[in-house]
Amino acid sequence: MLSKISVMGLLQALMVLNTATATLLARRQSSCNTPENRACWVDGFDINTDWETNTPLTGRTVNYTLVLEQFENYTSPDGSFKHDAMLFNRSYPGPTITADWGDWINVTVVNKLKYNGTSIHWHGIRMLNNNINDGVNGVTECPIPPNGTKSYVFLAQQYGTTWYHSHHSSQYGNGVFGPLVINGPASANYDVDLGPFPINDWYNDSADRILSRLQRPNQVPPSANNTFFNGTNVDPSDFTKGKYAKVVLTPGLKHRLRLINPSVDYTFTFSIVGHNFTVISNDLVPLNTTNQNTTLSSIFLGIGQRYDIIIQGKSEEEIAAEEGNGNYWINATQPTNNVCGTSQNPYPAAILTYDYPNATDQLPIVEGLKPDDLRCEDTTDFKPVVQRDIPRSAFNISPSNTLSVNLTPNDNNTQVFWTVNNTGLNVIWEKPILEFVRENSTSWPAEENLLEIPAESEWSFWLIENESVLPHPMHLHGHDFVVIGRSPAYSNPTRPEFEFQHFDPVVDTPNLNFTNPTRRDATMLPGKGWLIVAFQNDNPGAWLFHCHIAWHASMGLSVQFLERKNEISKAMNLTLIEDNCKAWQTYVDTNPPWHPKNDSGI
Ligand SMILES: *[C@@H]1O[C@H](CO)[C@@H](O)[C@H](O)[C@H]1NC(C)=O
Ligand SMILES: *[C@@H]1O[C@H](CO)[C@@H](O)[C@H](O)[C@H]1NC(C)=O
Ligand SMILES: *[C@@H]1O[C@H](CO)[C@@H](O)[C@H](O)[C@H]1NC(C)=O
Ligand SMILES: *[C@@H]1O[C@H](CO)[C@@H](O)[C@H](O)[C@H]1NC(C)=O
Ligand SMILES: *[C@@H]1O[C@H](CO)[C@@H](O)[C@H](O)[C@H]1NC(C)=O
Ligand SMILES: *[C@@H]1O[C@H](CO)[C@@H](O)[C@H](O)[C@H]1NC(C)=O
Ligand SMILES: *[C@@H]1O[C@H](CO)[C@@H](O)[C@H](O)[C@H]1NC(C)=O
Ligand SMILES: *[C@@H]1O[C@H](CO)[C@@H](O)[C@H](O)[C@H]1NC(C)=O
Ligand SMILES: *[C@@H]1O[C@H](CO)[C@@H](O)[C@H](O)[C@H]1NC(C)=O
Ligand SMILES: *[C@@H]1O[C@H](CO)[C@@H](O)[C@H](O)[C@H]1NC(C)=O
Ligand SMILES: *[C@@H]1O[C@H](CO)[C@@H](O)[C@H](O)[C@H]1NC(C)=O
Ligand SMILES: *[C@H]1O[C@@H](CO)[C@H](O)[C@@H](O)[C@@H]1NC(C)=O
Ligand SMILES: [Cu+2]
After folding, report:
1. pTM for the structure as a whole
2. What CATH code is carried by the domain that includes residue 559?
3. Which atom of ligand 10 is least distant from the CA of 357?
């Protein structure tokens, strides 16, 4: 049941990555990447390096083993409730995987779940010529069966903060996720790296049970039972149970905090009472902090999005001069019904505290920002350090690159689907798209929602129109996209509510941004509105573009882009997926797995 990645596959990927840098292994200078010089990394590589063409190959492989186990009566980290959970190495969230820019990462996943397959995706990782390690069952691999093992091997071509999670139906909602940190240069200086800080929703029920309820008509998704900061919080109905997450600063120093939203359904506005912060990257893309003001008092965090921020610690004297007690709330608020200006914290917050002689254990006493001060919309005006301009002349919108999203019942109204151009995604776990490609077959079913990227295009532009009032956090695999344009959020007070805003080529095209637009791997599609993204047609493989609300993805809200189809077999060794597919088939033959028609499988 063991599937191995051959050394040949690795070498192939190395060769195609960059012949110029592959010959010289990068070396670290001692004067580099100090608190005064974070822009520096190693000889010839710094914050201005375009990682799409240059990566400081270290020749090192970091190895991790993640053992995925099922717990029947897992006590929630807030002590409030017991239910099923699925955890990596018995830890919630899973362990942080850490590497340096240019390392190879080898994560061996051991599936000890009782009844579920699994498939682990490395969110935001480029996977250049390495689609077989993207970890999407039914697309790039078969699920890893119970008692099966698979090693995912990939290059840390980018650097910054991201996460990994199961792509097997809504399974990550049971706890199957963890942070992934790749050390590299930064676009502003700091003294202390505090590490990852996931903020996510928590339910007193398993993801499997919630999803099976939502697949029926007229169901509303449950409200979360808590918000977890770095995996914990107090019980909202009994503050003596569980514990607050505490972020500890040293007075006077600058601290880097790596925000991640690995929720299944919630977006947040993040803020810290009494502290502004500087955003140095969105997703895995460093931001220029000198030609724009990235110092903010709050930031919107959609599902799948990350922000690395730098917090300037106050001096002991500054703290003493304040009305507070040296402790400050870290809030993750939500606007009511997606209406900006109505943000509030439904659950207890986390605490920012200081390590100094006068520190106390008291709870913060200053309430924090007024709700209307909070930014409650996704930011699209951040400019990356490495500039990329998009050829306006190549821009064209037609029905062939328009995706229309809606919530659609089936004919006899017994099930509901999230559809894209009238079809909800439904992958075949036993026969991933890469298997069709290997067989040189194009006879995949319509429910694969597969869109072939025209071979001759350099840039691929996509207009997504959202018929529903719900905003959707859209995430692309295998690339960063640029956000060329977007309608205002439907809740924007200047817009009549619920009025659909179609993309109007005449009115809207002049306002699109082709000059160094925001570049990242997850962004919001506004309710009753539109979004235009573009990405380069340069990574052979089958790549998902999906809503990152777990319920929506599992109910169909996804397409797959098939890119440079004729080059896929050359770029990687597709036979490497075979062993695991055989193991999965053996499992299926004896234990028919649950995969109802209206579960997309991702
Ligand atoms: C990771 O495992 C590979 C293969 O077993 C080995 O060659 C390599 O030295 C290991 N890396 C480290 C950092 O130990
Ligand atoms: C979990 O809890 C249920 C209900 O309390 C109980 O029936 C079951 O035996 C427990 N399972 C384990 C493994 O403890
Ligand atoms: C990855 O780790 C597994 C388990 O330790 C090992 O068998 C395999 O050789 C490693 N692969 C590479 C490319 O280092
Ligand atoms: C996964 O396991 C859970 C709990 O054991 C079960 O309820 C669910 O049906 C399984 N899902 C799949 C997709 O196999
Ligand atoms: C997995 O291995 C355990 C221990 O060897 C065994 O009890 C269990 O039946 C196996 N499960 C499957 C699905 O093969
Ligand atoms: C998050 O929790 C882990 C485990 O308890 C801890 O080691 C880490 O310091 C925490 N991170 C922050 C930013 O507080
Ligand atoms: C944060 O920035 C706001 C302006 O947006 C400013 O009014 C406020 O004084 C700043 N707060 C701190 C603690 O620097
Ligand atoms: C940011 O923009 C400024 C002004 O355009 C430029 O001088 C600088 O080199 C850019 N890069 C960084 C990392 O600040
Ligand atoms: C940047 O914005 C912050 C917060 O809004 C504000 O406090 C600061 O004065 C601004 N800095 C510049 C250079 O405009
Ligand atoms: C620390 O507490 C002591 C005793 O209450 C007080 O005299 C001193 O001013 C405080 N120092 C600071 C920096 O808050
Ligand atoms: C921040 O969190 C604290 C503690 O939960 C709460 O009292 C305060 O109202 C929150 N602030 C906002 C703006 O919701
Ligand atoms: C979440 O927990 C369940 C089970 O205890 C309750 O039934 C729900 O009412 C609760 N939901 C919220 C929003 O707190
Ligand atoms: Cu959605």
Report:
1. 0.94
2. 2.60.40.420
3. 1
